[in-house]
Amino acid sequence: MQPSDKPQFLKVLNGLAAMKKATLIPEVLDLWWGCMADWSIEDFKAAAIHVIKNSTFMPTPKDFEDLRKAGRNTAGEAFAKALGWARSGAYRNPAKTPDAILIDRVVHALGGWIAITSCDEEKLHFLERRFVEHFETIQDSSDVREALPAIAKPDWLQLGVEARRKALTKEPETET
What phi, psi does 11 have (nearest 5°)? Predict the structure, then answer.
């Protein structure tokens, strides 16, 4: 949202609070504004209508983010894509879209594309169950890493592996 959207944002948010008999103190309003900063005012208003129709209590920013997540592939949809790519050979020339990258990461956690391409049809449901587990875990960690890159570094970066790699390859180390 833009700073010029704040009066409209506050009007909608206070309307939500009034409908749910909640009180919003200035500190809470500031947190809401910060949480919703990457939304457009139009999307926020549309989501507010949906959330208020489907909530018993005052919604939280998480309720709004859950609506955004509903537009992503489910684990089952992602597995169907992976299966299609494995059958057609499209995995050999993967797309660089975020969902294709995520699916590729999940497939590698299963043992690579060979695990899917060589799997017997009658055992595919076992592979799908493992795919779903990996998909949800990897997607959640990817979301956090993207949102908080300075805090949620992968373990191999936190453990200094990157610094050791640079030292071994004689790359200059940069200050962070």
Answer: -65, -45
For Cα atoms 167, 171, 174, give the angle at the middle one, nearest 5 degrees. 95
Residue 138, burial from CB neighbour count under 10 angstroms (0-12, 13-18, 19+): middle
158 burial class (0-12, 13-18, 19+ CB within 10 angstroms)?
exposed
**Distance from C-alpha of 113 to C-alpha of 119, rounded to nearest angstrom:** 10
When pLDDT is averaged across residues 35-50 and rounded to a whole number, the result is: 95
Amino acid 166: pLDDT: 62
List all residues 6 or more positions away from 97 whose beta carbon is below 8 Å from its beta carbon: none
Question: What number is the average pLDDT over the span 45-68?
Answer: 93
CB 88 within 8 A of CB 96: no
Q: pTM surpassing 0.85?
A: no
pLDDT(173) > 60: no
